[in-house]
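Please fill in the sequence for the structure shown.

STRUCTURE ENCODING:
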């Protein structure tokens, strides 16, 4: 493969994904301003993001099927057009229905982007590089969130609602131009895409992807480790830190930047881990799940306002869930043939966003109920947030159980195919011996 051309294609795709992440996370930064602009309750504000995520999650499987049929270029460009129109609508909206319609368009465009970009990776890069490049894709795309928490937040506070969201619309327009001009679906000389399947063949492909236990393991891995960070970054983190924990907006922006920086730093490490320890992917997912539960318990049970170092620790743990969720896509890639990768990836990508939208809406609903019942006169009080955020443990527990159940099915399937899953300590010992042998061999040479 032509490496420079592959990296150019990847760069264009990742820029489009970066723009999509900026569009996705911008509303979380504008949550307090949205409450005032639309004169809305906490449940209504959460509904903006819930409906956006519902559209996103609901389109993942159809998008996976469509990208297998029409290719990444068409899907990414269409997604950028929809997001640009959505932010243009939101920039001029001053009612809840108008704002919600804008976020629906953003969610639909966002849904078309990530799966389509991921599909480019195995087509343009050698198999040994795919896990690392996949992590780099997720990691670099998170710079879009950094755009939300720094320049977008500054523009929002300095120039107001409309100029800030018009800027996001302009970014989508730039993505459309670059994708149409420079991005290509496959390398030169690659076999042409197979003719479009009929509905029956598409249904068979979807059914086979779902029946593959490895696809479902990827789905529940994504479900469990991604949603808490999404809930924090997309909607409730900013109000929790400002109104609940009493931090100033500048400090909150720094913590949100730490969230992005952590994901960027740890992403390549996860890629290398997946490449070197493919039999330990689910163990890593469970480890991240446990760390997330522990971090939230420590913050929520801390008497009074949590110290800044503890909140920073929570942000770091939640940020790790983003790269950790990419392990789910590696399950989809390794357990499905190339012609089904888009469909399987779409199935996996549903998980974390379904969990996130359920949690986002539940948190907003609980906050409203606590105020209406007189438990708290302040909608965003710390004690109310403690109760509302505890709903996350239901989904963490459910996801953990489903991972363990599905993992057993995957291992039975692998055993039937003659693939042995060795104990962890034995695996590590064998790897140490292999490294020692390599060093001795190099020393002799």
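FILLED IN BY: designer on duty
SEQUENCE:
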């Amino acid at each position: 493969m032509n490496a420079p051309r592959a990296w150019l294609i990847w760069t264009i795709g990742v820029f489009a994904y970066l723009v999509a992440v900026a569009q996705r996370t911008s509303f979380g930064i504008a949550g307090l301003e949205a409450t005032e602009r639309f004169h809305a309750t906490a449940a209504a504000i959460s509904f903006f993001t819930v409906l956006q995520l519902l559209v996103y999650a609901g389109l993942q499987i159809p998008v996976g099927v469509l990208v297998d049929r029409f290719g990444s270029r068409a899907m990414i460009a269409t997604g950028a057009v929809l997001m640009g129109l959505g932010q243009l609508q939101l920039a001029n909206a001053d009612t809840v229905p108008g704002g919600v319609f804008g976020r629906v368009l953003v969610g639909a465009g966002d849904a078309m982007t990530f799966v389509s970009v991921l599909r480019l990776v195995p087509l343009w890069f050698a198999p040994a590089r795919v896990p690392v490049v996949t992590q780099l894709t997720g990691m670099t795309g998170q710079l879009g969130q950094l755009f939300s928490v720094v320049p977008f937040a500054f523009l929002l506070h300095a120039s107001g609602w409309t100029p800030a969201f018009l800027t996001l619309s302009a970014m989508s327009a730039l993505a459309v131009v670059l994708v149409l001009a420079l991005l290509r679906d496959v390398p030169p000389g690659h076999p042409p895409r197979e003719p479009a399947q009929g509905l029956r063949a598409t249904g068979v492909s979807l059914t086979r992807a779902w029946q593959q236990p490895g696809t479902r393991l990827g789905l529940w891995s994504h479900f469990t480790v991604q949603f808490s960070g999404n809930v924090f970054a997309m909607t409730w983190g900013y109000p929790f830190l400002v109104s609940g924990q009493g931090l100033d907006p500048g400090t909150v922006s720094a913590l949100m930047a730490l969230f992005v920086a952590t994901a960027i730093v740890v992403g390549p490490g996860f890629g290398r881990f997946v490449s070197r320890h493919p039999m330990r992917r689910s163990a890593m997912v469970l480890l991240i799940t446990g760390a997330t539960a522990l971090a939230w318990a420590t913050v929520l049970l801390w008497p009074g306002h949590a110290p800044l170092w503890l909140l920073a620790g929570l942000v770091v743990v939640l940020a790790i869930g983003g790269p950790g969720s990419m392990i789910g896509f590696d399950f989809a890639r390794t357990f499905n043939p190339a012609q089904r990768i888009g469909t399987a990836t779409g199935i996996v990508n549903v998980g974390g966003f379904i969990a996130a939208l359920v949690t986002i809406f539940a948190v907003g609903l609980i906050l409203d109920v606590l105020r209406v019942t007189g438990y708290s006169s302040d909608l965003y009080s710390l004690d109310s947030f403690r109760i509302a955020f505890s709903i996350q443990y239901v989904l963490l527990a459910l996801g953990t159980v489903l991972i363990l159940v599905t993992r057993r099915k995957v291992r039975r399937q692998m055993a039937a195919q003659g693939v042995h899953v060795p104990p962890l300590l034995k695996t590590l010992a064998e790897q140490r011996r292999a490294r020692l042998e390599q060093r001795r061999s190099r020393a002799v040479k």
